[in-house]
Description:
This protein is mostly beta strands and about 260 residues long. The chain has two helices and ten strands; from the N terminus they run H-E-E-E-E-E-E-E-E-E-E-H.
Amino acid sequence: MALGSLVVGLGSxxxxxxxxxxxxxxxxxxxxxxxxxxxxCFPPPGSPPPGCVQPGGPGSGPYVEFASxxxxxxxxxxxxxxxxxxxxANGPYVMQATAxxxxxxxxxxxxxxxxxxxxxxxxxxxxxxxxxxxxxxISVGFDLTDESSVRLSGGIFPGFASNVGELVDSNGxxxxxxxxxxxxxxxxxxxxxxYLDSSIGGSDSGSFGSxxxxxxxxxxxxxxxxxxxxxxxxxxxxxALLAMILGGCLRSRRRHAG
Length: 258
C-alpha cells in the first residue's frame, strides 16, 4: 500500500501541465481591393457611341468603354471573412465585359494553436483589358498564460508582401519574422500578450481574352504552442517524497497494531 502511494505520488509530481492556455484572442483585420475592365464598343457608322472613347484621341483606334470597382472592409471576428467587388462595361453598342476580385481571411484559435489564412484572387470575361489588385492585413492578439515553445509554419504563394508576418510582444518588440517562402521557425515565449501580424497583396492584368481567373496570393501561418516543463524545486520534491514515505509507514504500523 505504501509503495503504491509512493508510485502514484511520484507520477503526479512528474507530470506538468498538458497544454498551455492561449486566451483572450482578438482579431483586427482589413481587406481592400480595386480594379477595372475595358470593353470593345461597336458603334454604328459615323456615330460615336455614348460612354465610349478612343483612348488615344479621335481617329486613334477602336472605341472602348471603361468600368472600375473598389472595396474595403474590416474584420474583428474569428472564422471566415470576405469582401469583393466587380465592374461591368455595359453601355450602348458594347460587347459586355466584366471583371472582379476578392480578398478572404480565415482565422481559427484553440487553447494551444492559432491559424491564419489570407487569400486574394480575380476573374474576368470578354475583355479588351482588365486589371485587379487585392490587399489583406491581419493582427491576431492573444494572451499566453504559460511559458511555451512556439512553432510557426506555413508559407506564401503567388503575391508580393509588404510584411509577410511577424510575432511581436506587447511592447512592439519583434520575436520572430517570417521569411517570404515556406517556413518553420520557433522560439521560447514567457507568459504575456503577443500579436501575430501579417500584411500581403497581389495583382494581375490581362488583355484580349474571353475568360480569365486566378489566385493573386495565398498566405498560410500556423502557430502551435507547447508548454516548457517546469522542474519541481529540489526541496519541494524531497519534502513530498518524505511525506509519502512517512504516511505509508504510519498506515503500516496502524495495521500491525490493530
